[in-house]
């Protein structure tokens, strides 16, 4: 029997070839194949799961962040270019339609406004990317010339390619040397593809149609009064039956991807991320009373003396009893001066200016000869002299056709308008003569010389001055006449009076206690935070144990509340809710903070911060204590907030896209609410067709158990806060402000007087039957004013209002252009924003 070795020796050549082939496969061919398979799998693991789909394209978290980085880069450069153009006195054109990340802030009383950069969110990046995909599918191409033209328009023609390259280098610095100007140029080309496609579909907001311009003008200028009563959808809930299975599925599929947002009247079944919070609140008012006891009376008195000017008594001129007396004294000075100046207004101004201490002394010499004829016309008293010339004016006009009388008024007129050479020489002579003895006041003999014709002169001179002064130059006569009277009053200034110390000592004590209270509150919060941080560190180290429950709180709520109360702090909690539900809580509304940061374009910019918003936005781990608002973003503002919080997450739940079984009851309830709203709207529309008078409205309100109608007068579509450009919806007496919607205002202001309409509230679960009872101006008057105010261009206010309407229309077009299933998020995009 042959052994294996003998078989091998007999077939060694064949076996060597086979083994050689196997070795070649094992060491040369197989490794690349295995590496390719493992690398693809590893790449999938490294990239992570798909977070969103755009049509058939799947995007992972890193790809979404890369899209956001691209749009952020373009927005930063464009914003900086527009800001530089403004500094160079250029007129940059706003990108229209807007591109992500570039915001144009309207000027306000606090800042001049201008372009500003706002970080692009994941949702904005994916949405704009979808527009770019549509542009590629349609074959839209943006060439180099179009990109350069956009850069030129954006900078108002002030910046060159080299300037843009310098801006890019300044913004990026040495952080990423791979980002060159060519790279930015190509990124901008991708952005412009989406923007140009939007421009083809969306109307330019700088252009207003006649219809939209008229509606905007009417809404901004019309004032109406109305009477109305509500029809609530809840009254029709009992009339709604049960939905069929097909109706349930249809409603679920329509709103499956959309979250529920009651504040925006948005139906949705997508489950958002939810968190629960616990917090400790420190309020400086709880520490002020204790700090006030540390302030002594001596410290209060010292502060009062050092800052006494801050406690002056406010005295208004109208409250000064001496003021009428000074005006009465000034009045006779004007009456004696006016007749002395007579009929030579051309000569008045010069002697008035040079003889300010005694303006009444010199002028009678030049004015005595020419007051004869007007004296006979106005024998009235001195003070009503301003009223007497009014009936004399037509006499002078009527006398113009007559030859003998027409010459003398013309001479008087010429003395006002164009003085003759003789008159000018005489006045200048009097000025020279009166200028030298000015300190000695030799004008007193002139009064004696003029004493004989004084009374008739006083009566006649104002008439001759005031009547021709209307066509001539009255300002030069009256202003210098009152100026000398004003100069005589300053010596009667009252002494400065201060509030007594007893009146302001509590205010001073509170002010001095503020720093002490602030320090005490900071120390209490620091002690509380240190204790929480210590317990959290123990919790974090214990996580290495496999059997450790990470969802169990390391804090004893009772012990924390006791410690907080002892330190003068307050302990509270927020249940497990999503961001929309949380924003409606009292805690979310109280925990707001306003900061000011330096913006190169608009000066100090206001930043509104929210504790609840940051708790959802930042991916902090469970139970980690955080301080809000913490240190100010801008170090120029070192003052600490008077209300501060320490908060931590106690529970969190990730959002998801549900199945029908998960939210079946919610879908059924939403369907019933929609049907009840339809019934309420139909009922309100039927009532509105029948109501034609106030009596009919009252009768309809009684029939529907709505009580007396709401009487709302002087309703305006908008309210504008002082110093701000933004408009807010107006107020309606009897209707809560949170229920007033734009649809309600549109219904009211689009209805004529004497007609009825149906105006829905914000959530569209209440419909008001409204009768327009009156208006401040008729539609015809408003239209005439609108046409008169155009003057070749629409008013800026109309343009701003039509722009807001365009934004609403743009949103509708976007929603209609993209099927809701075109962009499908697999995770909550808020989580993607945390890593950006």
From TrEMBL:
- Region spans: Disordered: 89-117, 313-498
Supply the alphabetized keyword list.
Membrane, Transmembrane, Transmembrane helix
Compositional bias (Basic and acidic residues)? 350-373, 394-414, 435-447
Q: Where is the composition biased (Polar residues)?
A: 415-428
InterPro entries referenced in this protein's UniProt entry, alphabetically: Bact_Fn-Binding (IPR052506), Trigger_fact/SurA_dom_sf (IPR027304)
Would I find Nucleus among this entry's keywords?
no
Q: Where is the composition biased (Low complexity)?
A: 101-117, 324-349, 448-495
TM helices/strands, residue ranges: 14-34
The name on file for this protein is PpiC domain-containing protein
Identify the species of origin. Bremerella cremea
């Amino acid at each position: 029997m042959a052994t294996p070795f003998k078989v091998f020796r007999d077939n060694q050549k064949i076996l060597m070839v086979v083994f050689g082939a196997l070795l070649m496969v094992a060491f040369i061919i197989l490794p690349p194949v295995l590496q390719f398979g493992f690398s693809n799998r590893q790449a999938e693991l490294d990239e992570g799961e798909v977070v969103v789909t755009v049509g058939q394209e799947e995007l992972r978290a890193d790809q979404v962040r890369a899209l956001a980085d691209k749009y952020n880069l373009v927005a930063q450069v464009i914003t900086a270019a527009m800001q530089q153009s403004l500094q160079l006195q250029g007129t940059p054109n706003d990108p229209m339609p807007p591109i992500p990340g570039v915001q144009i802030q309207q000027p306000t009383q606090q800042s001049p406004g201008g372009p500003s950069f706002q970080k692009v969110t994941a949702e904005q990046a994916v949405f704009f990317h979808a527009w770019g995909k549509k542009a590629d599918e349609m074959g839209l191409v943006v060439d180099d010339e179009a990109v350069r033209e956009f850069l030129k328009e954006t900078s108002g023609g002030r910046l060159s390619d080299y300037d843009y390259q310098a801006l890019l280098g300044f913004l990026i610095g040495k952080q990423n040397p791979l980002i060159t100007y060519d790279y930015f140029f190509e990124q901008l080309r991708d952005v412009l593809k989406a923007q140009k496609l939007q421009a083809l579909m969306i109307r330019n907001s700088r252009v207003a149609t006649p219809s939209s311009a008229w509606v905007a003008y009417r809404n901004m200028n019309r004032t109406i009064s109305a009477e109305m009563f509500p029809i609530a959808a809840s009254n029709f809930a009992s009339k709604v039956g049960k939905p069929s299975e097909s109706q349930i599925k249809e409603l679920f599929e329509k709103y499956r991807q959309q979250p529920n947002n009651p504040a925006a009247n948005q139906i949705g079944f997508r489950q958002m991320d939810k968190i629960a919070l616990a917090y400790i609140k420190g309020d400086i008012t709880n520490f002020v009373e204790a700090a006030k006891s540390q302030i002594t009376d001596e410290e209060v008195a010292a502060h009062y003396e050092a800052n006494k000017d801050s406690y002056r008594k406010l005295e208004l001129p109208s409250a000064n009893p001496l003021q009428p007396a000074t005006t009465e004294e000034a009045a006779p000075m004007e009456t004696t001066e006016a007749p002395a100046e007579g009929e030579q207004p051309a000569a008045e101004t010069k002697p008035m200016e040079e003889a300010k201490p005694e303006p009444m002394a010199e002028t009678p010499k030049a004015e005595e000869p020419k007051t004869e004829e007007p004296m006979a016309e106005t024998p009235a008293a001195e003070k009503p002299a301003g009223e007497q010339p009014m009936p004399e004016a037509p006499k002078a006009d009527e006398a113009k056709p007559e030859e003998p009388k027409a010459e003398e008024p013309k001479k008087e007129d010429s003395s006002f308008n164009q003085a003759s050479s003789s008159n000018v020489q005489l006045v200048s002579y009097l000025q020279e003569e009166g200028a030298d003895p000015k300190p000695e006041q030799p004008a007193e003999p002139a009064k004696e010389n003029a004493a004989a014709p004084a009374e008739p002169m006083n009566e006649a001179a104002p008439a001759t001055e005031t009547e021709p002064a209307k066509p001539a130059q009255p300002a030069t006569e009256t202003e210098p006449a009152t100026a000398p009277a004003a100069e005589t009053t300053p010596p009667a200034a009252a002494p400065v009076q201060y509030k007594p110390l007893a009146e302001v000592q509590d205010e001073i004590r509170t002010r001095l206690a503020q720093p002490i209270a602030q320090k005490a509150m900071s120390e209490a919060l620091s002690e509380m935070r240190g204790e929480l941080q210590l317990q959290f560190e123990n919790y974090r180290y214990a996580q290495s144990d496999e059997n450790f429950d990470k969802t169990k709180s390391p804090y004893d709520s009772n012990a924390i509340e006791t410690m907080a109360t002892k330190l003068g702090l307050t302990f509270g909690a927020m249940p497990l809710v999503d961001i929309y539900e949380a924003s409606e809580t009292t805690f979310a509304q109280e925990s707001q903070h306003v900061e000011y940061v330096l913006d190169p374009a608009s000066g100090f910019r206001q930043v509104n911060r929210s504790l609840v918003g940051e708790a959802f936005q930042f991916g902090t781990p469970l139970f980690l204590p955080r301080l809000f608002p913490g240190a100010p973003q801008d170090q120029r503002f070192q003052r600490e907030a008077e209300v501060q919080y320490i908060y931590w997450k106690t529970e969190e739940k990730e959002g998801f896209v549900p199945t029908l079984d998960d939210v079946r009851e919610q879908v059924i309830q939403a369907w019933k609410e929609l049907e009840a709203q339809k019934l309420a709207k139909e009922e309100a529309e039927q009532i509105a067709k029948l109501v034609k008078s106030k009596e009919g409205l009252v009768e309809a309100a009684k029939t529907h158990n709505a009580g007396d109608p709401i009487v709302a007068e002087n309703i305006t579509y908008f309210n504008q806060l002082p110093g701000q450009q933004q408009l807010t919806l107006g107020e309606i007496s009897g209707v809560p402000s949170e229920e007033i919607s734009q649809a309600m205002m549109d219904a009211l202001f689009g209805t004529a007087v004497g007609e009825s309409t149906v105006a829905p509230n914000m959530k569209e679960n209440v419909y008001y039957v409204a009768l327009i009872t009156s208006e401040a101006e008729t539609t015809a008057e408003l239209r005439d004013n609108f046409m008169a105010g155009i003057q070749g261009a629409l008013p800026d206010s109309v343009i701003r209002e039509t722009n807001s309407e365009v934004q609403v229309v743009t949103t509708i077009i976007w929603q209609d252009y993209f099927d809701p299933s075109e962009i499908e998020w697999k995770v909550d995009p808020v989580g993607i924003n945390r890593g950006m």
